[in-house]
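Attaching the record inline, Q. Sequence:
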Amino acid sequence: MKSPLLTRREILAAGARLGAVTALASLTRPLLRAAGAAPGKVFDIRKYGAVGDGRTLDTAAIQRAIDEAAAAGSGAQVLVPGGAHYLIGALELKGSIDFHLADDAELVVSTEQKDFNGRAAISATNLQGLRLTGTGTINGRSREFMERFDEVDEWWRPKGFRPRLVVLNGCKDLEIRDVTLSQAPSWTLHLLGCERTLVDGIKIMNQLDVPNCDGIDPDHCRDLEIRNCHIVCGDDAIVIKTTRQGASYGPSSKIHVHDCILETQDSGVKIGTETTQDISDVRFERCEVRQGCRGLCIQLRDEGNVSNIDFRDIKFTSRYFSDPWWGRGEAISFTAIPRAATTKLGSMHDIRVTNVTGKAENSIRICGSPQSRAHDITFDNVDVTFERTTKYKGGLWDNRPTTAIEGIEMHGNPGYSIRHADNVTLKNCRVSWGQNRPDYFTHAIEAEDVTNLQTPGFKGEAAHPERDKAIVST
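Structure, as predicted:
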């Protein structure tokens, strides 16, 4: 009869299973939150003088409704009725209210700098229980903040002033649901230092050729879930950061992004480049990157550490765009490169990519640095096809932003490029090449200064097998 006492191995295995369950629960904690406070008193902005003709500035009237709703206590609703277009400058949300854009209501951002006083169109600071809901739209009018279209660089040149659309600082138990954020002239939704946040079912519809109009920027955030969102934007679609400005809020961790559709001219799902504090316990899954200059991206450039990151069940298409956009069509780009020669660089480790398929014009990169080697990185069932499809110059990689090494590095493009890394596993992965294979397409795997590279079940040959080996290591 087997002894009822557990062996040490069984105890460790049970602990590992419990740890995995606990980690998953922490990533999905916002799912357990209530949908919102019980309905309270309704504060209709029209009763406070809002006109809604798209020409009369309604900021003061809407702010009065917000202030009175906040004074009424938890659960009060500020109602922005449909069928009208309300011209606004900077609005400050307050209290634990539900700011509700009903039906087809539209908040239209003013183009006058004096209407903002250095603030975003919608902002909030240190609130608990705030909700931003409804099926209406916040229209940032991005084209009207642009000076001209640059035909050479193929993007719009902004004027001197352009506000961010929504900035929420230090908020807890925050919910953003169903609203549409459109035509942002700069960052669309910046969550700085927020905790226990749910972003569900929102749409972001920006211009693809406007720079810096990121979709969602969680920055020093914890216990965050982003789900069921559709994002179209010129810059990064969903990008997790720890910027220097938010240092007092601490690290970013326990973030779950899933079931989103993304279209961008920059990275689809990304961590960095601002990594001044740790970013950990992040999962991206069941997302589709319909277009981007990189499908999956980690850019460690500062002193923070990036660890325990999962990318699962993701489809992507990555291609070149014009030179100013960071990214040169890399399929997956995980790089730890110092921002400057004097930068103290953190560590990138314990990264997992599972069940990912894509098409790309450039390599999969796993790139540490001599002073900060990438380690413990696993790709499992990753299937990528490489083929040139656009007109832009190739045979290069994009290391930006950095002054420590070349920003644009001329180099042949293997399927996988692995540098300055330890304990990298490519399990059941596949490299395929399309019909358009330029001369600078090279090996299936190129490893430089790599220890313990494992490739069980790997399939793939060189782009030009008559010239190059499938796998090379130096």
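Residues 81 and 102 are 5 Å apart (CA to CA). Confidence is low (pLDDT under 50) at residues 1-26, 28-38.

More tomorrow.
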